[in-house]
Design brief:
The complex is a heterodimer of chains A (about 475) and B (about 170).
Chain A: H1 8-30, H2 35-56, E1 62-64, E2 69-71, H3 73-91, H4 104-123, H5 127-145, H6 152-183, H7 188-198, H8 201-219, H9 227-234, H10 237-269, H11 274-293, H12 298-319, H13 322-353, H14 364-367, H15 369-383, H16 389-403, H17 407-432, H18 448-466, H19 469-484
Antiparallel strand pairs in A: 1-2
Chain B: H1 2-22, H2 26-46, H3 50-75, H4 88-111, H5 118-126, H6 132-140, H7 144-165
Helix pairs in contact in B: 1-2, 2-3
């Protein structure tokens, strides 16, 4: 009997996150009454350690577990996005209005379990690993979405996310079963090879189409976006921030990697997905922006904005070149800071005000000028106005689109960015030019963790806009090392 | 001997399946469903698929039937209240479907499509697919990590269920 050789060295960041999750559960059980702070520190330390370890093994290209677990610079870079997001979300969690402080142990461990699942998903080398990773990531997310148990909206968010998520998993699995049936293998590289050999163009298209539908559901691409606003609005705000970055990134990364594996097969069959992806991209940008305009709830507005941003990310995928993937990686890092930052400010304001409506933001500049200023930085960056980081992200995406002669996508992208300025300005206007309902209101109370998080995120949003060279270099070399190998 | 057992089990399965739909008392239906599922499990066992047989007993005859019984007890269905409202269209549809299904079975049995021919059977019996050993070997070697992650997944589900239902 032969055992698989496991190179645990490659799994270290995942195992650290997993052990942190278990440790949090145990400490929560055994700890004293004042264990809230220690759990918080434990989560941060676990994520920080995993972040350092993932960054250290950044340029490694290897696979283990008989090829089901793949590690390359691109995957490692994406894992940095996951870990960084989880870290920032944890930093800003304590200000959340809806989560009672008593049950934070399960909250942190579920967050860590979800991060672990997303990391496994990004590294998956075969269909089974993709599915297991996806479920490992999704199930904690369903629970987190409904985590504010007393709140009706949070319950609604959890149920909607759960039902539609389970539904989309089933669709994904259906597509996978077709791919397996066609190719007789669950390994992505072997499937990529044998779909070219099979000559079954229609079947391959159908199978991958179903698979794509399942994935785009997770990525909140437009025909499958219906659940997003309700889920984001109802979920506790830090959880919504986590979804807005991590779950989209994970879906996108799986799609990028599968398209890279299947490229030769699709070429042999003369199947081209660029057209489909472009249509999805345009739809996502337009719907995300246009429906966003009429929103009055800031969380819903940010949810639609996050949908629109997935549309921009898809442009990079439509380009189909390594430069396109560079631009996606750059955009992901930039988007991570501004999106989680914007949600963090909403977290703080909603605890002080008891709601996330536009009216709750009125006169915020009077009350807490720093909070308003950081929100302004994030929103202007989300629009893509220089010199902030969002501009750099959009610049590279649109540059790639023009290089590859995807003019329609570039034009729609620029136009929707302009329209999105309108709805971000609604928040800015409320914060700076509207009078507060209660002029004598006290400044918004902010916990130290939130303060550190906001400073970090504003700093990176500014710094990556002013000096993006290291990020661009990192993205380029990661993608080059990955595709070159 | 095996062939005889196989036929007995098949007959029991078919007869109990017919009884599931024809009984007026829903509790009786559920009991016949157990008989049906168990005899199908025996069929799997005779075909050498031990693991699937065990799953059949544990998952279907165990968990799912218990769920049925629970729901029946919760709803407290009396046998008089259950009357079959079937229109002529429904009956006609059922008859057509049954005929199609029988034709299919007959076609496969008579024509001996691929996997039903003698050689295919012998080839299939050589594959140890579905036995406890082969599944265990795969699970603990090739799919070890996936298996472990699945166990973490179960833990997460339990933690989540407790977190949701915990009294505050």
């Amino acid at each position: 009997m032969s055992f698989v050789s496991v190179d645990f060295g490659l799994l270290v960041p995942e195992l650290v996150v997993l052990s942190a999750a278990f440790l949090v559960l145990v400490v929560d059980l055994l700890g004293s009454r004042q264990r809230g702070a220690s759990l918080w520190w434990l989560t941060l330390c676990g994520l920080g350690l995993a972040l350092l370890l993932a960054a250290r093994g950044w340029n490694l290209s290897a696979s283990t577990l008989s090829g089901t677990f793949v590690l390359d610079p691109f995957v490692s870079t994406v894992k940095l996005v996951f870990l960084l997001s989880a870290f920032l979300v944890t930093l800003t969690t304590l200000d959340c209005r809806l989560i009672s402080r008593l049950s934070l142990g399960e909250y942190y461990s579920l967050l860590l379990f979800a991060t672990f699942g997303f990391m496994v998903l990004a590294s998956a080398g075969d269909l089974i690993m993709i599915f297991i990773g996806l479920e490992m990531a999704s199930i904690p997310c369903y629970i987190l979405a409904g985590y504010a148990f007393e709140d009706v909206k949070s319950n609604e968010a959890g149920i909607k996310y759960f039902l539609l998520g389970a539904f989309s998993s089933a669709i994904l699995l259906y597509g996978m079963s077709f791919l397996y049936g066609l190719c007789g293998s669950t390994f992505l590289s072997e499937i990529g090879f044998s779909i070219g050999q099979s000559g079954q163009k229609l079947l391959v298209m159908g199978a991958f189409g179903v698979f794509l539908a399942g994935l785009t559901f997770k990525m909140t691409v437009v025909p499958f976006h219906m659940w997003v606003p309700d889920t984001y609005e109802g979920s506790p705000t830090p959880v919504a921030a986590f979804f807005s970055v991590v779950s989209k990134t994970a879906g996108l990364v799986v799609l990028i990697r599968i398209l890279a594996y299947f490229k030769q097969g699709f070429l042999a069959l003369e199947v081209d997905w660029t057209q489909v992806l472009s249509i999805l991209s345009v739809l996502t940008m337009v719907v995300g922006t246009v429906i966003g305009v009429v929103q009055t709830n800031v969380k819903r507005l940010l949810a639609y904005s996050s949908i629109a941003h997935v549309g921009y990310l898809l442009i990079g995928l439509c380009a189909g070149t390594s430069a396109g993937i560079d631009s996606i990686v750059i955009y992901l890092f930039v988007y991570l800071f501004m999106s989680i930052g914007a949600f963090a400010v909403v977290t703080a304001v909603s605890r002080a005000e008891g709601g996330e409506e536009l009216a709750n933001f009125r006169g915020l500049n009077r009350r807490s000028p720093l909070l308003a200023a950081s929100m302004a930085v994030f929103l202007i960056s989300l629009t893509g106005i220089p010199p902030l980081a969002g501009f750099i992200g959009k610049f590279f995406i649109f540059a790639v689109a023009i290089e590859e002669k995807l003019y329609t996508l570039a034009i729609v992208g620029v136009l929707t960015s302009v329209v999105s300025l309108f709805y971000y300005c609604k928040i800015l206007k409320a914060m700076y030019f509207a009078e507060a309902e209660d002029p004598g209101a006290a400044p918004v109370a902010v916990s130290p963790g939130m303060r550190v998080g906001l400073v970090l995120m504003s700093f990176f949003t500014l710094a990556l806009g002013l000096y993006p060279v290291p990020l661009v270099e990192m993205a380029r070399s990661a993608v080059r090392l990955w595709l070159g190998s | 001997m095996t062939a005889l057992l196989f036929f007995v089990c098949s007959l029991v399965a078919i007869a109990s399946a017919a009884l599931v739909v024809s009984r007026k008392n829903p509790v009786h239906s559920v009991l016949f469903l157990i008989v049906c599922l168990l005899s199908v499990a025996l069929l799997f066992l005779l075909l050498g698929a031990q693991f699937i047989a065990a799953l059949q007993v544990i998952v279907y005859a165990g968990a799912i039937v218990v769920l049925f019984v629970f729901v029946l007890m919760l709803l407290n269905v009396k046998k008089e209240t259950v009357t079959l409202h079937s229109s002529t269209v429904q009956k006609l549809g059922a008859v057509i479907l049954v005929i199609v299904l029988l034709m299919e079975a007959l076609f496969v049995a008579v024509m001996g499509v691929g996997w039903l021919s003698k050689e295919a059977w012998i080839a299939a019996s050589g594959i140890s697919f579905g036995t406890v050993q082969s599944i265990g070997r795969e699970l603990f070697t090739r799919y070890l990590f996936q298996f472990e992650v699945a166990s973490v997944l179960l833990l997460v589900a339990i933690v989540g269920a407790i977190a949701i239902t915990k009294k505050r």
